[in-house]
Amino acid sequence: MFERPDAGERALLVQLAIGRKLDAEETTEFRLLVEAAGALEVGLVTGTRDAPDPRFFVGQGKAAELAEQVAATDAELVIFDHALSPAQERNLERRLSCRVVDRNGLILDIFARRARSFEGKLQVELAQLRHLSTRLVRGWTHLERQKGGIGLRGPGETQLETDRRLLGQRIVALNKRLERIETQRAQGRQARDRAEIATVSLVGYTNAGKSTLFNRLTAAGVFQADQLFATLDPTLRRLELPNAPAVVVADTVGFISQLPHELVAAFRATLQETRSAALLLHVIDAAGNERERCERDVEQVLMEIGTEGIARLRVMNKIDQLADQGPRVDRDAAGQVTTVWLSARTGDGVELLIDALAERFRGQVENCQLELNPSEGALRAWLYRHGQILAEEARADGGWTMAVMIDRERLRRELKRHGRLLDARAPAAGTTLEAACQ
C-alpha cells in the first residue's frame, strides 16, 4: 500500500530523553521489545532534547548522525522508542533511506506475532489498521491529486481516497465481528453472575509472571515464557477455594508504559473481563529495578479502562530472585490482606494467596442443617458445588438431611430461588453424621 523502503531485521535503535534524564531500565525494556519483535540490534543512538523537533523528532544534527549510523551499520530499519507523528515518520524515511518504526508500531508488530486465537488476531488487525489509517497521509504522494487534461482524467477518486475508504470498510467489519465476540463474552459473564461466581482478574506489567501464577493456581497449562507480551488471549478457569465459594480466574494481556491507544480500544472485549471483575490481582515483579514505575504505569492503564472502584490485592511475585525475602502476607490496620509475597515459579507462598482469596470471598460462613425433599436433587447438587458437606443421611421418604458449611447469605438467596426460607439449625463444626442429622 505504501511506496516505502522494505523493512529488514537489522535495526538501529533510537532513544531520547525528552526534558529529563534517560533511565537505564527503560533502555533495557526497549531492547527487550526489539528482541521480542525479532529484530537484530546493530546500534543504539541516545540523546537529550528539551522538546521533540516538529520535522524529524530528533533535530537536524541528530538526523544527520542517524544517516551516518545507518550507512555504517547497514541497518535496514530504524526503531524509535517514541511515538512519531505520520509526518515525522515520513520525513525520517526520506532522510535515512530506510524504514522507520515508532514505539506504537513496534508494540503492534509484537502483538501480531503473539496473537494465536481468532479473536486475538482480529483485535490486533483492528489496532494495526487504526494505526495505519493515520499514516496514509503522504503515503501516496504521487497519486494524491486527481489528474486533469485529455487522457489523464481519472474516475473521480484518488488512490489515497480509495485506500481510506477500503480501510474504513475493513475497520467497520472488524468492529462488527468483535462486537459479536463481546456479546458472547457478556453472555458468559451473565451466566457467572446468575451462578454467583465471582471473577478474579490477573493484571500487571508485561512479563511480571501472570501466566505462570495462573498455571500454578489452576493447572491450566497456558503458554508462559520469559518474554514481553507472551499472553494476548484471555483464559478463564475455575478455582476452588477452601471453605469459600469457587471463583473464576482470568489471565489477561500485560500492560506496558505508553501503551498505544489503538490497542486499548481494540482489546475492549478482552479488557472487559478486567472491568467486570470482583477483585484484581495486581501481579508485580518484586525483583524488578523499576517496580514502582511499573506499578504506576499499570494503575494508569487500569484507570483509563475504568476500574477505579474494583478492589485490589497486590501479589509480589519472583521472590525467589530476592536474597532475604520469604513468603509472607501483609495486612492493613483493619486486618485485611493487602499484599502477598510469593514465587509463582517455585510455588512458595501460593497457598498464602489461595488462603487470602478464600478469606476475601468467604463471607459469613456458617454450619447449617437442611431437610431436602426427594424433588430437590438440584438444590442438593448446588450445595455440593458451593458448600462443604459435613454430614448427610438419606431418609426413608427419599429425601436427605444434610449438614453443610456455606456462606449463609448465598444459601439464603439460593433457597429463595427455590421458594424456601432459611430456617435451618446450625450444628457445630465437625459434627458427626448421627449427631448432625438427628
TrEMBL record:
Which terms are listed as keywords in the entry?
A: Coiled coil, Cytoplasm, GTP-binding, Magnesium, Metal-binding, Nucleotide-binding
InterPro entries linked to this entry: G_HFLX_dom (IPR030394), GTP-bd (IPR006073), GTP-bd_M (IPR032305), GTPase_HflX (IPR016496), GTPase_HflX_N (IPR025121), GTPase_HflX_N_sf (IPR042108), HflX_C (IPR045498), P-loop_NTPase (IPR027417)
The protein's matches in Gene3D superfamilies, at most eight in alphabetical order, are given as: 6.10.250.2860, GTPase HflX, N-terminal domain, P-loop containing nucleotide triphosphate hydrolases
What sections of the sequence does the record tag as coiled-coil? 164-191
Protein residues bound to GTP = 204-211, 229-233, 251-254, 317-320, 343-345
Instruction: Determine if Protein transport is one of this entry's keywords.
Output: no
| Positions that bind Mg(2+) | S211, T231
Q: Which residues form the Hflx-type G domain?
A: 198-365
Its family remark reads:
Belongs to the TRAFAC class OBG-HflX-like GTPase superfamily. HflX GTPase family.
- Subunit details for this protein? Monomer. Associates with the 50S ribosomal subunit.
Q: Which NCBIfam families match?
A: GTP_HflX, PRK11058.1
What role does it play? GTPase that associates with the 50S ribosomal subunit and may have a role during protein synthesis or ribosome biogenesis.
**Protein name in UniProt:** GTPase HflX
Q: Which organism is it from?
A: Thiorhodovibrio frisius
